[in-house]
Amino acid sequence: MTATGSTEVFGTENAPPPWVLVPWPGAMVAVAAVGIMVVASIAAWPEMAVEVVTREAGGRHGESVANRGVTAAAMPAVLLGLTVLLSVVLRADHELLKRTPVGLDRSPERARRMFSWTLMGLSVVLVALHLGLLSLHTGTAFPLEQAVAAAVGILLACLGVATPLVAPGGRVTGRLERFRAAQSKLYRGAGGFLVIAGIATAVVAAFEPGVAMMVAVASVAVAFLAVALTAFRASRKSPE
């Protein structure tokens, strides 16, 4: 009896909080990225100017100034906040939708993997942005535009891997069910398209970062618009 009671207490104490569903391994990548940013901030701190002007005064706006303390801490804090937020959102999404028709047959594990890939891509973008912001304070030559555009390409590729996991589940009927079923088949193709577009974005970023960003935005719009329009057309067809 004592052993059983101890086991129950041990299991309860070690169970994850009911309001958290951590998107591993994306969270591990995020923590590693935070570590990289913290180390970079510490290394750059002695050389960082106390303040830098990020935008000159003009027209109706005043001068914009960035403090080195804010610059050193902002991106790591943002990434940690995103990791915590996504963990809470995952749990809330599961708890709120699991008893609805939309939530039936939805796998929390698929959602976890989707958020994990998204967090990996965001980690790369924030590291690139952080290093670029540090360079503004130190005066070090850093290809900020190219680095961020290439990081966006990596994010896009990660989103492409995650896209098939976005395919809606649930149990609905009629036209809505045909729309849902059609989307499920199309998301895999859209994901592959985004992976290719992400690689292309990262390559183009080395030469034309502005063009690379336009490629990324256009690719996302084309992929999901194609899915929506094709699924809508399929939903209008009468079932055989």
Automatic annotation (TrEMBL):
Q: Which residues cross the membrane?
A: 21-45, 65-90, 114-135, 147-166, 186-207, 213-232
Origin organism is Kribbella amoyensis
Spell out the protein name for this chain: DUF1648 domain-containing protein
Q: Domain of life here?
A: Bacteria
**Which keywords does this chain's UniProt record carry?**
Membrane, Transmembrane, Transmembrane helix
- Is Electron transport among this UniProt entry's keywords? no
